[in-house]
Design brief:
Number of strands: 0
Distance between the termini: 19 Å
């Protein structure tokens, strides 16, 4: 089996970078949720906040790498003007045109929400830190932002998998 550069970048973009972000979400969510007064000691707060900050910053970086590699490495191959490009193949068939019209629009535009919100959540954890324990509204707002980031990334990942199934970005010609 041989993987060409386009396939390799598609795998890195979705199956490696995107999957790391989506899988790490559970740990980040559990970390944010567990920052409740009465459940942890002062020493436990310091320990959890350190892990949470490192994890959230790492997730934000991975989210940016995922979106940037998708937009600036994989997507130009998708939208190439030649008739054998994935975009051209999808649009040529009325049964698959919606995959481009909705799926790629989501991936092109809405997927940017994931790294932006992941960065905001990492910033909140770094800047407010211990206040997340005592301020329930701040903690819930942070969790809500984190869930929206996850949802945007999960939908983009699902659409990407379906798009790649309908029109792979493999070698052309």
């Amino acid at each position: 089996m041989q993987i060409v550069d386009r396939e390799l970048w598609t795998v890195l973009h979705g199956m490696v970078f995107g999957t790391i972000f989506l899988l790490a979400f559970a740990g980040g969510l559990a970390g944010l949720w567990s920052l409740r007064p009465g459940l942890i000691t002062l020493e436990g707060i310091r320990d959890r906040l350190l892990r949470l900050r490192v994890g959230l910053v790492t997730m934000a970086v991975v989210a940016w790498v995922t979106v940037l590699s998708g937009n600036y490495i994989v997507y130009p191959w998708y939208r190439a003007s030649d008739p054998s490009s994935a975009r051209s193949r999808l649009l040529a068939n009325p049964n698959t045109a919606l995959w481009h019209q909705f799926g790629m629009e989501w991936k092109e535009h809405v997927a940017w929400v994931a790294p932006i919100l992941a960065t905001a959540v990492a910033f909140i954890a770094i800047y407010y830190g211990p206040r997340l324990v005592g301020d329930r509204r701040l903690r819930y707002l942070t969790i809500a932002l984190f869930v929206v980031a996850f949802a945007a990334a999960a939908i983009a990942g699902l659409l990407g998998a379906f798009l790649n199934k309908a029109a792979p970005i493999g070698p052309t010609g």
